[in-house]
Structure formats: structure tokens, C-alpha cells
Amino acid sequence: MGLSTVRTGRVCDDVMAQMERLIASGEWPVGSKIPPEPALVAALGVGRNTVREAVRALEHAGLLEPRRGDGTYVRATSDLGAALLRRARRSTAMHVLAVRSSLERDAAAAAALNRTEADVVAIREAADARRAAAPEGGDRGVFVAADLAFHRAVIAATGNPVLVDLYAGLTEAIQRTVAEIAERDDDPAAFPGHDELAAAIIARDPVAARAAAENYLGAARAIAERDR
């Protein structure tokens, strides 16, 4: 689980710090359910009240989200991500696409310059999964999830933790707009730019990567504007 027994100091602060590290590192990824209270108590060696206090504090900070009758889920990786999430929920598709354009064109170029061999593997796998999830009568929700996973792999390849946090905070809004556009598009599987982006990043070609990002973002804007 990645937690260690708390022995000294301000106990609740230590518990919160350990939980925040697990969230920030991705060991507790956004959207996942954290371990139940008894498991946390046992792993940390503290009382139930301490665990509850720490969880409540992270809920107030926006990192965790309680779901009645189900458990507590990771909502954001940081305070910044939580604030972005709250704001993005009130944004239109065009607003989200405008922000994506600002972030993803430069991110594509940065990924091409900074990607590691591990990033290459992740991007190839994500591109293959996105292609395999092509709708053609299948579940569009699966396709949307695969599309998001591909873009997260690209963002991760930039090596910029601030950008990763920014993008994570926008995930819910991006997912909503991708789903809307996929629903309006006759053939979302043929949406341009994604395979080209993967190839450009792998080839370390920032110019081609930026052009590929502009290609898919432009196509998304055209669909969003057409149906307004």
C-alpha cells in the first residue's frame, strides 16, 4: 500500500503527507478508490479518528471525494488540480478546447524533445489501445477512455510535473468534451492527427508533433463549432 507506521510528531499531518505522496506519485491514481479505513488504520498504526481527520482534510482540499455507500476516491493529484477541476466543470466545450490548444501544441513539441524510451513504450501502447477501441458499433465510453489515456501519455512524456498536474485537473472537462465530439462525429476512430503525433514524438520531431496536435485540435474545433 506504500504507507508506513506513524510514530512521532504531529500524527495527523504525517498521515496526510503520506496520503498526498501516494496520490502525487500515482500509486493512488485519480479515479481510484483508496483503501478502506480499517486497512489505513492497520498500515499507519494510528487510531480511526486520526485517519478520519486526515481523510476529511484531504476531502476539503479537493484531493479526495467521498461517495456515500461506496468509499472514498481520489479526485485530483494536488490542490491546484482540485481548483482546476471545480472550474472546468462550469466550462463549455469551446472553452476547454481553447485551453487544450494552448497546452497540447507546446506539450506535443516538448514530448518530442524530452521523451524517454519508457515514454515511447507507453505512447505506442496507448496509441494501439486507442485504435483497438475504435467505435464501429462498440462502446464509445471505452474509446473515450482510450483517447484520454493516449493524451495523458503524451503529457507525461514532456517530463513537466506542473503540466501533468494542470492536465490532470482538466481531465473531467476534457473527458466530457471528447465524449461530446465523439458522439457528433460520424467516425471518431478516423479522427486525424493521433497516429501522426505518436510517430512524431517517437522520431523526436517537435515541428511535426506540434502540427499533428494542431490537426486533431482543429478537427475537434470544427465539429464543436458546426453543432453549436
From TrEMBL:
Any Pfam family matching the protein: GntR
Keywords: DNA-binding, Transcription, Transcription regulation
Domain HTH gntR-type, chain residue ranges per copy: 9-77
InterPro entries assigned: GntR_C, TF_FadR/GntR_C, Tscrpt_reg_HTH_GntR, WH-like_DNA-bd_sf, WH_DNA-bd_sf
UniProt superkingdom: Bacteria
SUPFAM superfamilies named among the record's database cross-references: GntR ligand-binding domain-like (SSF48008), Winged helix' DNA-binding domain (SSF46785)
Transport among keywords: no
Name listed for the protein in its UniProt record: FadR/GntR family transcriptional regulator
Keyword Transcription regulation set for record: yes
